[in-house]
Design brief:
- This protein has about 350 residues and is α/β, with parallel strands linked by helices.
- It contains six helices and 17 strands.
- It folds into two domains: about 240 residues, 3-Layer(aba) Sandwich (QueA-like); about 80 residues, Beta Barrel (Thrombin, subunit H).
- It is about 20% helix and about 30% strand.
- Strand 6 and strand 7 form a beta hairpin.
- Helix 5 packs across helix 6.
- The chain is globular.
- It starts with about 25 loop residues before the first strand and ends with a strand.
């Protein structure tokens, strides 16, 4: 299967630059995952596609202000550091630009010197292992000095950084938001609960590798990055009980989906635990537990559109994307949503 099989034309003006004032007022395209039949509506209509006994699975990860602007201690040259993955208490895997300014042993200063760093190692993929030095609590310093790591296709300044967080974000560690969850409001979640739909919570810290382009033409040659996940016994039981009782498992986003498919056994039941997952889902994959998928519209030729295509079919998904372009849906992180499910 080729990378080019997942290409579609997208006018640049359809890339959403800012979030809508009301999260749940975004548009919703509903796709029958078998036939490809389409319906258009608004995200608040999502309630119509849930029944008592179903289970909504959300990712509680919280985006950290992972983008740091600093300067080399010896030359004062500007250096941008993006925190990707914590290796130890003060040790992080980072993306650094420009990389040539951050060779092993080089020191970087941030702010007025309240945060300093030393490049410890240059990894084969060009990322750096960086050791940070500070007094106090790292998260508080990061909150003061760091910026939200918005994707490069968003050119507008984000006025309210909470809009790049879900309303249920809790566990800090992501380098990017699980954007399918950005459409939910506390009011909508309450209505879902009142309908008798259970909510299960897990964590997958999103790494920027999710958004890295697939470079190999044969997609099976692509190596996925790994990301930390956690699901506890209580939430695993909520999902398993819903499944045993005939309820649908409705996954919010590709991040929740990758986690669920990583922790589900061959009999279709979730096992509690934590670890790293590098699961790569593309057409031909047989889903073990997810029945319905809520997601955003993804970049052409990305691993995310490949996952969505696996959930339905490549033909159905590309046809839906073509329709979304024609109807001027908003695309990517701050864009509109799609629900893939069994329509009756």
């Amino acid at each position: 299967m080729l990378k080019s099989d997942f290409y579609y034309d997208l006018p640049e003006e359809l890339i959403a630059q800012t979030p809508l004032k009301d999260r749940s007022s975004s548009r919703l395209m509903v796709v029958d995952k078998k036939s490809g039949a389409l319906r258009d509506g608004h995200f608040s209509d999502i309630l119509e596609y849930m029944q008592e006994g179903d289970c909504l699975v959300i990712n509680e990860t919280k985006v950290i202000p992972a983008r740091l602007i600093g300067a080399r201690e010896d030359t004062g040259t500007r250096v941008e550091v993006l925190l990707l993955k914590r290796q130890d208490k003060n040790l992080w895997e980072c993306l650094v630009y420009p990389g040539r300014k951050a060779r092993e042993g080089k020191r970087i200063v941030f702010g007025n010197g309240e945060l300093k760093a030393t490049v410890k190692e240059v990894l084969p993929d060009g990322n750096r292992i960086i050791d940070f030095e500070f007094s106090g609590i790292f998260e508080e310093i990061l909150d003061k000095l760091g910026q939200m790591p918005l994707p490069p296709y968003i050119k507008e300044k984000l006025e309210d950084k909470d809009r790049y967080q879900t309303v249920y974000a809790k566990n800090s560690g992501s380098a990017a938001a699980p954007t399918a969850g950005l459409h939910f409001t506390p009011e909508l979640l309450k209505k879902i609960e009142e309908k008798g739909v259970k909510t299960a919570r897990l964590t997958l810290h999103v790494g920027l590798g999710t958004f890295r382009p697939v470079k190999e033409e044969n997609i099976t040659d692509h190596k996925m990055h790994s990301e930390y996940y956690n699901i506890d016994e209580e939430n695993a039981n909520i999902i398993n009980t819903a499944k045993k009782n005939g309820g649908k498992i409705i996954s919010v986003g590709t991040t929740s989906t990758r986690t669920l498919e990583s922790v589900t056994d061959d009999k279709g039941f979730v096992k509690a635990g934590s670890g790293q997952t590098d699961i790569f889902i593309y057409p031909g994959y047989k889903f073990k537990i997810v029945d319905s998928l809520i997601t955003n519209f993804h970049l052409p030729e990305s691993t995310l559109i490949m996952l969505v295509s696996a959930f339905s079919s490549r033909e159905n998904v590309l046809r839906a994307y073509k329709s979304a372009v024609e109807k001027k849906y908003r695309f990517f992180s701050f864009g509109d949503a799609m629900l893939l499910c069994d329509l009756k």
